[in-house]
Amino acid sequence: MVLQDIKGERIQASINKGLFKKWRDFFEEFKMYTMSNFIVVDKMEKIKTTRNRWTLNFSHRTVVVRVENPSFSLEPFCLKPIPELLAAEKFDDSQLLDIIGEVVGKEDPRDIITSKGKETKRMVVVIADLDNNNLDCVLFGDMVDQIVPHLEDGRVEPLIMVLQFFKPSRWNDKVSVQSHFDVSKIHVNPDMKEVHDFRKSLLGSVTSNSVRISQVSGHGVQSGAAELKRGGVVVKSIEDALNSIEEGPIWIGGTIVSINAGNND
């Protein structure tokens, strides 16, 4: 879990398997608690939900009390402007981002098999900010089932979505973000100040009766030579690819040493 203080500083907290049953139903997202008696360790993780190098591990002595009357308001998202993502030359692969936008496009969901042989679902939705800057968002697994009921044909009300802890990437010179396992979350039309403010700015005093979400086709395969030349991608080894636990495209550099082809191939 990720904790945030009155100054907006964040730190990750972890509960091991031995204590998970004790705390499983205790916490509620976006509620305030006082906590004490942690074990502070250097988390040393490749993917970071915060910029803090430390993590708080629960122990048998950890004490948590819910605060019924919070002393300060919570701003749970560190929203990244879409233009900054689109203009970035390189991304920090270890940093996960929060983004808000209106869903303006969708692809049909499709079944895929991961590198570990696991069956899952993949779907791309397109979100736009208040200046009509578009960004592709790749969803995997249960997130596809979560968003599909909201994408009915003929929708005229804006569908606003907050992406939390998403990983930025560039593929074929196109910037997108994608969900990262169980860490990422999507909040669809949530009752939150950030969403209310976004909707108010989006609609103003004018109500639109036009269809807001369009169907888009899958992106075709393009040459990646320009990406390699500009250094905008990370080239991995075959061993890295085989050991990867992430879903999505991987660049591999290598030399063809043998071609096994028969007369009928």
TrEMBL record:
Q: Which domain of life is it from?
A: Eukaryota
Q: Which CDD domains match?
A: RPA1_DBD_A_like, RPA1_DBD_B_like
Pfam families named in the record:
DUF223 (PF02721)
Replication protein A 70 kDa DNA-binding subunit B/D first OB fold domain boundaries: 1-65
Q: Which InterPro entries match?
A: NA-bd_OB-fold, RFA1B/D_OB_1st
PANTHER family for the chain: OS03G0429900 PROTEIN
Q: Specify the protein name.
A: Uncharacterized protein LOC110272367
